What we know:
Elements: H1 2-23, E1 29-37, H2 46-51, E2 63-74, E3 80-90, E4 98-102, E5 130-134, H3 152-174, E6 181-187, H4 189-204, E7 210-217, H5 223-233, H6 240-253, H7 268-277, H8 284-291, H9 312-316, H10 318-323, E8 336-341, H11 349-361, E9 366-371, H12 375-391
Parallel strand pairs: 4-5, 4-6, 6-7, 7-8, 8-9
Antiparallel strand pairs: 1-2, 2-3, 3-5
Helix pairs in contact: 3-4
Amino acid sequence: MKQPFCFLLLCTLLACCTQMDQMEQIDYSVIKFETAGYTDLGKFHPLMEDYKDFIPFFDKGLVCRITAISYPSVDPNGVAVEVSGWVFHPVNRKSRGVIEVLPTAHMINDGGISDELYAVQGILMMTGYTVIVPDFIGTGISNDRSIPMFMAENTGRVAYDMRRAAARYLWDEFRYLLPSETIIMGYSLGGYAALAIQKYYETRHANTIKVKEVYASAGPYDLIVAFDAFANTGYSAFPAIPSTFLTIKHYYFDCFDREFDLTKVFKGALLNNYQEWFSGKYTEGSVLRMLGTDIHTYMHEDFFKPFEAQNETLQSIRPYLKENSLIEGWRPKAPIYMTHSKTDSCVPVECAEAAVKELRKAGANISFTIYPGDHFTVGYLWILRSFLHFILP
């Protein structure tokens, strides 16, 4: 009986040493922290103050530490950058595991942990899990940088570095060893990020990180599909199209002194004001009011043509869109629970339909649910579904 026990003990020690070695590879700094629990839920979202008493499965005695940390990572071109994020950890209960939750898109640069501790994703701390939320580049303490929107590899890398920094912090502060198994969640831009991180973990770090399951909602998993859908309707209720083009211009062209002619991409008031409108001074709602929802008023006429008939500037971005697609070239191992709105005017439902079709062909296990309502309604349903899944037996 002693030999099997000794073998199991040795395996456990080796596994712990492997994780500790991984944590040693990254540094971090604590920016600020405080404790929070059931009575503080209204700080995460005003609706939680109104409805928390009607949610019977919340643990009213749960106390968590909310900590904002910074850590080193790199931008899409490998340039070093200090990034930030949140760690939510139960301090009077044993953690049930780890959930990595990704932020949604916002354009104003005063968001993130540099301004607040109560990220809405942190509501999931009430499940009793340790919750990790990276800020990503362009928000929090890196808000002077251009946001790398829909850049899959960098999204995975920054989240991976956040996970390592969080692991080090949790060990130093609580002697809590972050488990190798993880759950990944994201909505909207976070839905795209959820699949990007799953791909990064499963293709680059499968020996040290096991993705248990992924909850991806309302994400633009392939930008070619998204742009084609937008061009067909001519309508967008979120100013993500200009943001995406400006991201491509910055990281793929400007950083290498390559010309990118925006007069062949934008027109009208957007062409004259894009530097101001997308400077980080304005919320997405303010930008949308300046832009309007009719894409024809601000995108070049060639944007609405078939690819072969588009101008050379629009054609030049196709390789970068394909490079950052999440629907081709890999086989997800962990099950994916995907949701979307049938009438989503911010992220076309075609993005989810194409992802489900292509990833299933590759052998992925995907559960796909289409909900009624708009983009934001699905966001609330997504978070409710998550609570029910994690808390109810």
